[in-house]
Amino acid sequence: MKFNLLSLHLSLRRADEQIEFSKLSYFWGQMGAGKSSIARLVDYCLGGTIQLSPALQAEFVSATLTVELERATVSIERARDAADVFASWEDGEGRYSIVIPARVPAGEVIPETGVETLSDLVFWLSEINPPRVRKSKAKADSKIVRLSLRDLLWYCYLDQDHIDSSFFYLEESAEFYMRLKSRDVIRYVIGYHDERVADLESELDQLRANRTARVASIDSLSKALAEVGIESEAQVAERASGLRASIVKVNAKLEVLRKGRREEQTIHAIDELARRARSLGSDIAKLDLDAEELRAMQDRHVRHRNEIDMLSLKFRRSAEAREILGDVAFSACPRCTQALPTRLTQCCDVCGQEDLADLADPAEVSALEADIASRRAELQEAIAAIDNNLAKTQAQRSDLLQTKEKAEADINRALAEQDSAFLSMSLLKERERAALEAELASIAWLLRLPLLLQQQREALAQIVALEQAKREVLKEARTKAEADRTSLDRFAGYFLDCLSLSGVPGIHRTDHVELDPPDFYPSILSADPRDLTRSTFTSLSSGGKKTLFKCCFAIALHRIAAQLHAPLPNMLIIDSPMKNISERENRAQFEGFYRMLYQLNAGELRQTQFILIDKEFFPPPDDLVAGVTNRHMQPDSDEHQPLIRYYRGK
Prior knowledge:
Layout: E1 4-12, E2 16-20, E3 24-29, H1 35-45, H2 54-59, E4 60-68, E5 73-79, E6 84-91, E7 94-101, H3 118-125, E8 132-134, E9 144-146, H4 149-152, E10 157-158, H5 176-190, H6 195-227, H7 233-258, H8 269-325, H9 362-417, H10 421-442, H11 448-483, H12 486-501, E11 512-514, E12 523-525, E13 534-535, H13 543-564, E14 571-575, H14 587-602, E15 609-614, E16 628-633
Parallel strand pairs: 3-15, 3-16, 10-14, 14-15
Antiparallel strand pairs: 1-2, 1-4, 4-5, 5-6, 6-7, 8-9, 11-12, 12-13
Helix pairs in contact: 6-11, 7-10, 8-9, 12-13
């Protein structure tokens, strides 16, 4: 991935500073001169956080980093304490500039590109699709997330503070989520995360989102139908049929009234409404009684379930106590500490009763726990069914109460109107027919809901089947991608080669590097089968060894990335590789490490830019001097000026 740093421009309170970068830039000198601040400001412009030195606290205003990418050269300006950056670039179509979040997305910044953060912009200008990986490797239905530029930069910027204290978040003590992302970076670089796997994971993620949406839609429809007391198309049809039958009866009643049958006119509408209200009140009282019985039954089931939970807990505690104390030979009472009398062989030493310790047989305990779980599940299912019945009962009660209130309102209206028995009954039946016809028309749309619910369930079944098939294909594709260990073995070989060239004590070219998925945490084993020692970053006792160990691993990853043309930024910043190492006492390591870097910079890593920061300068050999620049920096010096040339510390 083409990623060439051209310059870093600092806007300060009293002046500006310009740092130019070459193919290999070497900053060295005394502490306090601002060497590490150069690397930190580069990282800050790329979305990192920064702890300002005293000099920068007093003088720093903003920093502008110029980076050459595949499509354009982009300038990234970030002000002090800013969450956004100002990016500008120019290509064949014109000059562009945008304000974009450094890390936290806030929506698409460039329309129809998916660019939301600085990381997205860098990938877009590099003509690379951001790698997508599963957030959780333990859950098959985990959603897909993108690896960001910040994740890749873990292997491109080795900062002084953590160079000897953490190993790219790969060690077991690292935060779990960070460890997974670091592994994903390695998988991505060495080719284990190929395009076929990425496409399949993206398709699976889309299917998973569709499944979630279908499930939510089914739940909503089911709840809507349950609220109106309908769960199937047959129930809707049955209700519609009942309404039509009621309309026929009302029409027949009206026909009788119109023919003037006197015996039918003796009943007043008020009497009919009062009878109906009494009937509805009786039905409501019956529903209240049923609900009370259901609640009482639910309370019994809940108490029974809680008793089972308590007895299960007591049984487990008793079984564990027996297991712990079963082999204890008591010679004195555990309560009063007096010597125990002699007991028969089959009796308990403490209480003298028949020893029943064999009752705590593991098979019996397991069977009993299975029975307890089964009974608890039955009770939980019964409680859920009662909850459902209570909800239905409450819905029915609400409907009946609403109908009763309407009947009572009709009674009040009939009393106020003082109509004749014939007229009042005719008006009552007309209103009743109108209400029935309105209800019949209103539930016509309900006929579509059960059908729609069935269609959603069928679509969900298809999605689940397709998702399962896609998951199997993905598993095969991932296995196939990881079956070829060529790149991984080559990566391990590069790592051992770097360690050997750097002269790390205790590590030899004949040793073996164990570097296996899924953790990719390297171990060095001796070629002698009798030597069972294993050297890892954690087990290394020397801080200097840890520093070289980590540097060599990053360099090896860049070597394999260069060979595979992997999308890893071809830039490596190493801040203080000789941290904890004396250039005089450990001259072999000092010279070996830098000689290796110069050779790689002129050879297989000639496309990779190095920025080195250290205490001392090791000049390159005459045949490797091309493209190497160095800057000697000292605080309060006019000859070897610090980062802020005019600043003089207190």
